[in-house]
Design brief:
By secondary structure, the chain is of the alpha+beta class. 32% of the residues lie in helices and 22% in strands. Strands 1-2-3-5-4 form a five-stranded antiparallel sheet, with helices on both faces.
Length: 170
């Protein structure tokens, strides 16, 4: 899936994005999304919610990768996209997952218009590797500016998977 195609899915998940609704794909895409508080304490709930959605879609083969990327993107959004004084209080983050025939699109929208930046990697440090993890685990990833008023952005990642076929019951 190209970056352009992945971005065209975003309006179905976050209507405030500045992407025309005409770009939304076929109706056979399934969408789950929610607002979460911009608080690192919400990460556990995000991981559980994303895993439950993926389990319901039988996307088991990519579930670990998608959950880890969701955790990285939400942590980045909370730490860098919801800085006090830059956003309206209380800040929230919008997390969404959608499923196509053999694709998963994960997205996180935050209130900051600033582009995601790769952190400085200290060989002995524990920070600065999140976007590298996202790039390594996803099929494609990127970001798009948010609403027409120039506020916010959406960071997204796509994943390929082979859906399980239903087995006939005997």
């Amino acid at each position: 899936m190209s970056e352009e195609a992945a971005l065209s899915l975003a309006p179905a998940l976050a209507p405030q994005l500045a992407v025309p609704r005409a770009a939304v794909p076929r109706a056979d895409w399934q969408v789950e999304s929610r607002e979460v508080p911009a608080d690192l304490a919400a990460l556990a709930d995000v991981r559980v919610a994303v895993r439950e959605v993926l389990d319901g879609w039988q996307a088991h083969e990519v579930a670990d990768d998608v959950v880890l990327v969701a955790s990285e993107l939400v942590a980045n959004a909370v730490q860098h996209g919801c800085r006090p004084g830059e956003v309206v209080e209380p800040p929230t983050v919008h997390v969404g997952v959608c499923r196509g025939r053999a694709r998963i699109l994960l997205f996180v929208t935050d209130p900051s218009p600033s582009a995601p930046l790769r952190g400085r990697r200290d060989p002995m440090g524990v920070a600065g590797r999140g976007l590298d993890i996202v790039t390594a685990l996803s099929t494609a990833c990127g970001w798009t500016p948010g609403r027409r008023d120039g506020r916010g952005k959406t960071v997204w990642a796509t994943f390929r998977f082979r859906p399980l076929r239903a087995t006939p019951s005997t």
